[in-house]
Design goal:
Number of domains: 1
Bound molecules: coproporphyrinogen III
Distance between the termini: 26 Å
Strand order of the largest sheet: 1-4-5-6-7-8-9
Radius of gyration: 19 Å
CATH architecture: Alpha-Beta Barrel
C-alpha cells in the first residue's frame, strides 16, 4: 500500500532506515499487558485468546499504551502462538504455567499432519485487527506487526509449552535433523505468509521475535535456525517495510542474526549498546534497557536510560526499547517517565 509522506517521516520509521530523526523514537516490547490497569480491566471479562480473536478488543488494547505512554509506535495486540492453531495444534493459556500445547509435535508423522495455513482466511481476525488499528490510529504513530521466528515457535510446539533447557527441541534437532528441517520449513512458510498478510493489511513495520534463540550455540544457530529466519526476511523484503530481528541472550549470535536479515537488530541488556552495534554496523539497533530497571527508583532508572542513550551517542538508527518485554508489576509511571526522558534528552531540532 502507498505510504503517505507524513508517515514516512515518523521517527520510528526513519530510525529503522538509519535516517536522522529530531528525537530518538521509543516503544516497548509487551507495552500492552497486565502491568496496565486498562488492560486488566478488559482481561476481567475476556481471556487472552478472546481478545486476540476479536478485532475490536485487540485494537482497543493495542491503543492503550499509545494513549497512556506517548510511545512512538504501536504494536499489534496478538501472540506469537496464534498461527499454531490453524496448523492443527491446541493452544491454551493457563494461569502461572503460560502457554500449553496438548498435542506437541515430535515425530515425522506429527510434522506431516500439520495443516496448510492461509493467513487471509485462517488468521483473518488478526488481519482485521491490523486494519482497525490503522484506521483508529489515523496516522498518529506507525503500527508494528509481528510473528515469532521459526526456532522460537518450534520450541513451544515441540516442548508443549515454555521450557528451561529446550530438551525436546534439541533432542529433535540433534537426533532427527530431517524431521527438524521439515518442521522448520513448514513454519517459515506459514510465518512468512502471516507477516505478508499483516503488511498487506497495513502493518508499517514487522518484528520477528526469536526470543529463546540465545539457547543455541552459534554453529547450531547457523545449521538449524538461520536458513529459516533468512527465508522469511527474504520473502518479505520486496514488500518494503522495515523489519526488526529480535532475540534474547544473543551477544554471541548477533553477526549471524545480521546475516539472517532484518533492518533493525534487537539488543538485549547483557551487551553494552555500542558493543552490540559494533557487531552489526550496517543496521539500525533497538534496545536495550534491562526490563527490571523499570522497577528501580527514578534516579537510578534515569541514570540507566542516560547510559543507553550515551552509548547510542546520537547516531542515526537507534530505536530506544527494553532488552526484552515489560514484566507484570512494572510501575506504569516509570514507563511513562522513560518515554519522556528519552524524548527530552534527545530532542535535537529538526533533522
Ligand atoms: O507487545 C505487545 O504489547 C503486544 C502483545 C504481545 C503478546 N505476546 C500478548 C500477550 C506480544 C508481542 C507477544 C509476543 C510473545 N508471546 C512472545 C515473544 C515476546 C517475548 O516476550 O519474548 C512470546 C515468547 C509469547 C508467548 C507467550 N504468550 C507466553 C510465554 C505467555 C505467558 C507469559 C505470561 O506473562 O503469562 C504469553 C501470554 C501473553 N501474550 C500475555 C500477553 C499480554 C500475558 C497473558 C495474559 O494477559 O493473560
Amino acid at each position: 500500500m502507498a505510504v503517505s509522506p507524513v508517515m514516512t517521516e515518523a521517527p520510528f520509521l526513519r530510525a529503522a532506515r538509519r535516517q536522522p530523526t529530531d528525537v530518538t523514537p521509543v516503544w516497548f516490547m509487551r507495552q500492552a499487558g497486565r502491568y496496565m490497569a486498562e488492560y486488566r480491566a478488559i482481561r476481567e471479562h475476556h481471556s487472552l485468546l478472546e481478545i486476540c480473536a476479536r478485532p475490536a478488543l485487540a485494537a482497543e488494547v493495542t491503543l492503550q499504551p499509545v494513549e497512556r505512554l506517548g510511545v512512538d509506535a504501536a504494536i499489534l495486540f496478538a501472540d506469537i502462538l496464534l498461527p499454531i492453531v490453524p496448523l492443527g495444534l491446541s493452544l491454551e493459556f493457563t494461569a502461572g504455567e503460560g502457554p500449553v500445547i496438548r498435542n506437541p509435535v515430535r515425530t515425522a508423522r506429527d510434522v506431516a499432519a500439520l495443516r496448510a495455513v492461509d493467513a487471509e482466511t485462517d488468521l483473518g481476525h488478526v488481519l482485521e485487527a491490523v486494519r482497525l488499528v490503522r484506521a483508529e490510529l489515523a496516522g498518529r504513530v506507525p503500527l508494528i506487526g509481528f510473528a515469532g521466528a521459526p526456532f522460537t515457535v518450534a520450541s513451544y510446539i515441540v516442548e508443549g509449552g515454555a521450557s528451561r533447557h529446550f530438551l525436546e527441541t534439541k533432542k529433535l534437532m540433534y537426533g532427527a535433523p530431517d524431521v527438524w528441517h521439515a518442521l522448520m520449513g513448514k513454519l517459515s512458510e506459514v510465518l512468512a505468509g502471516y507477516l505478508a498478510g499483516q503488511i498487506r493489511a497495513g502493518a508499517q513495520a514487522v518484528q520477528l521475535f526469536d526470543s529463546w534463540v540465545g539457547t543455541l550455540a552459534p554453529a547450531d544457530y547457523r545449521a538449524y535456525a538461520l536458513p529459516y529466519t533468512r527465508a522469511i526476511f527474504e520473502r518479505l523484503r520486496p514488500l518494503g517495510v522495515p523489519m526488526i530481528h529480535f532475540g534474547v541472550g544473543t551477544a554471541s549470535l548477533l553477526q549471524l542474526q545480521r546475516e539472517a536479515g532484518g533492518d533493525v537488530i534487537g539488543l538485549d541488556w547483557t551487551i553494552p549498546l555500542d558493543a552490540g552495534w559494533a557487531r552489526v554496523p550496517d543496521r539500525a539497533v533497538q534496545g536495550n534497557l534491562d526490563p527490571v530497571a523499570l522497577f528501580a527508583p527514578p534516579a537510578e532508572l534515569q541514570r540507566r536510560v542516560r547510559e543507553v542513550l550515551a552509548r547510542a551517542a546520537g547516531r542515526a538508527g537507534h530505536i530506544f526499547n527494553l532488552g526484552h518485554g515489560i514484566l507484570p508489576g512494572t510501575p506504569v509511571d516509570h514507563v511513562r517517565a522513560v518515554v519522556d526522558m528519552v524524548h527530552e534528552a534527545t530532542a535535537r531540532g529538526t533533522p
